[in-house]
Amino acid sequence: MADLGAPVRVSPLIKFGRWSFLVVGVAYGAYHQQRLAKREVGIREIEAQQKAIRDAKLAEEKKRNQAAEAKAIADLSAPTKK
């Protein structure tokens, strides 16, 4: 393994800058996450309302399809006159 020598002492200004950017990044991430979470709650409420409407429409369509299928089966199973 190569001899890399002694590590260089990092300037206190650079250390301060690195830690400052880390703290600012974490604070921004927490703020942004909170903002997105609030938006997501609103979207989920709207989707819940739309789901109720969509489920009612699907149930009505399923009922109509079952009635049409029952009528088609009845027509096919009825004896034909010759």
Describe the secondary-structure layout.
Layout (H helix, E strand, L loop, with lengths): L11 H66 L5
Main location: mitochondrion
GO molecular function: proton transmembrane transporter activity
InterPro entries: ATP_synth_F0_esu_mt (IPR008386)
In short:
The protein has one helix spanning 12-77. With 82 residues, it is mainly alpha-helical.
Please explain how this structure is put together.
The protein has one helix at 12-77. With 82 residues, it is mainly alpha-helical. It has a domain at 40-76. The longest helix is centred in the middle third of the chain and has 66 residues, at 12-77. The chain is elongated. The N and C termini lie far apart (99 Å).
Give the tags.
82 residues, mainly alpha, ion transport
Low-confidence stretches: none
Number of strands: 0
Outline the biggest β-sheet. Answer: none
Mean pLDDT: 92
How far apart the termini lie comes to 99 Å
Structural class: mainly alpha
The radius of gyration over CA amounts to 34 Å
β-sheet strand percentage:
under 5%
* Helical percentage: over 70%
Number of helices: 1
Order of helices and strands: H
**Silhouette:** elongated
GO molecular function: proton transmembrane transporter activity
Family: Belongs to the ATPase e subunit family.
Subcellular location: Mitochondrion inner membrane
InterPro entries: ATP_synth_F0_esu_mt
